Amino acid sequence: MDADGTIVLGQDQDAPADVYDAAESLSGAVTDLNVWSRRLRGDEMAAISGCLTRGKGDVLDWDTSDFEIGLDCSITEVGEFTFN
Question: Which ranges carry the Pentraxin (PTX) domain (predicted)?
Fold first, then answer.
């Protein structure tokens, strides 16, 4: 991916800059998404998936990345949680 590239989450993208289809979109929540420039070792994956540590991706870090919600996205609040 180029330094100024785009990652599309929650939508099956058939081609770059393709028109999005609501029937192929995610209905749910995404949290703690991180992307690394390398394959993680087994012990790193076990620690992250076992909640022993929080991974911080070097390509995309959930805590410091800027995310943009698409115009056709809806936000739903359920109790103390907010779903985009």
Answer: 1-82
